[in-house]
UniProtKB/TrEMBL annotation:
Full-protein positions shown: 1 to 296 of 503
Domain notes: Composed of three domains: the N-terminal N domain, which is responsible for interactions with the ribosome, the central G domain, which binds GTP, and the C-terminal M domain, which binds the RNA and the signal sequence of the RNC.
The protein's name in its UniProt record: Signal recognition particle protein
Domain of life: Bacteria
Keywords: Cytoplasm, GTP-binding, Hydrolase, Nucleotide-binding, Ribonucleoprotein, RNA-binding, Signal recognition particle
Annotated source species: Phenylobacterium terrae
Length: 296
């Protein structure tokens, strides 16, 4: 594992054997390599800086263990730091309301995988014997509403009947009423997305959050977005009561630096990873797996 970084660090440390502690200069050189590895994995620059500062602190004064190559020591410090920054070994599941229905609101840019993820969550919850209702609030895109209805069928759950001409807040109210009256455990609200961040989208999503007071407001983001991830996460976090992140396309080629960037910028737990286009392609987040991927 981590061959690319390992090779680079071996070069840095070849000269080092025989010395008692890692010197500041050695650490600086090693951290330069770590920095490149993180940037190559598409971690956002401010997050890379923060990470390197912490890792440097940890590495300073570390005794060189005879049986362990210094390169491996630095890799371990880096890997452990990444796991910690990604939230450690604790896996955060969904917060379910004490009094059903639990409301889960999905937010994110158009194309992030928001609607697909709503369907995946519905399937997951229905496997846990929850009665789930899916509702699309994407009034500007009838196709998105139909897509959610199809996903509901695939997941074997109900979707709120589509009433053309209703506003998003009105659909949210109707969905909440149906969920309550018909004894649903979970209502998933799929909000409208935009290709870019815009004020109309944000204020509509904020209003829906106010109306529905969700137990979970999940930001769905594409794991391949790279440097843009920070801007997106910040913008949504400022306006919505986000409780967690879902990163989609974790099955793609990217090294997934966006996961670290978004987690660092928002402090929110990453709850799930989307790992395929299929309805069952949703895994619980695993910090070790993602840290390993970032190191390449
Ligand atoms: P939305 O506009 O945010 O609702 O995005 P969609 O849910 O319509 O997803 C956009 C595209 O991404 C669709 O073709 C999905 O099948 C695909 N997609 C969503 N999640 C994943 C994932 O985890 N992995 C892969 N490979 N594709 C995904």
């Amino acid at each position: 594992m981590f061959e690319a970084l390992s090779d680079r660090l071996t070069g840095v440390f070849d000269r080092l054997s025989g010395r008692g502690v890692l010197s500041e200069k050695d650490i600086d050189e090693a951290m330069r390599e770590v920095r490149i590895a993180l940037l190559e994995a598409d971690v956002a620059l401010p997050v890379v800086r923060e990470f390197i500062a912490k890792a440097k602190e940890r590495a300073t004064g570390e005794a060189v263990i005879r049986s362990v190559r210094p390169a491996d020591q630095v890799i371990k410090i880096t890997y452990d730091g990444l796991v910690e920054m990604l939230g450690g070994d604790e896996v955060e599941g969904l917060n379910l309301a004490l009094n059903p229905p639990t409301i889960i609101m999905m937010a994110g840019l158009q194309g992030s995988g928001k609607t697909t993820t709503a369907g995946k969550l519905a399937l997951r919850l229905s496997k846990d014997r929850k009665k789930v209702l899916l509702a699309s609030l994407d009034t500007r895109r009838p196709a998105a509403m139909e897509q959610l209805a199809m996903l509901a069928k695939q997941a074997g759950v109900e979707s709120l009947p589509i009433v053309p001409g209703q506003s998003a807040p009105d659909i949210a109210r109707r969905a909440m009423q149906s969920a309550k009256l018909q004894g649903y455990d979970v209502l998933i609200l799929d909000t409208a997305g935009r290709t870019t961040l815009d004020e109309a989208m944000m204020s509509e999503a904020a209003e829906i959050a106010r109306i529905s007071n969700p137990s979970e407001t999940l930001l769905v983001a594409d794991a391949l977005t790279g440097q843009d991830a920070v801007r997106t996460a910040k913008a949504f976090h400022e306006r919505l009561p986000l409780t967690g992140l879902v990163l989609t396309r974790a099955d793609g080629d990217g090294r997934g630096g966006a996961a670290l960037s978004m987690r660092a910028v928002t402090g929110l737990p990453i709850k799930f990873l989307g790992v395929s286009e299929k309805i069952d392609g949703l895994d619980a987040f695993d910090a070790r797996r993602v840290a390993g991927r970032i190191l390449g």
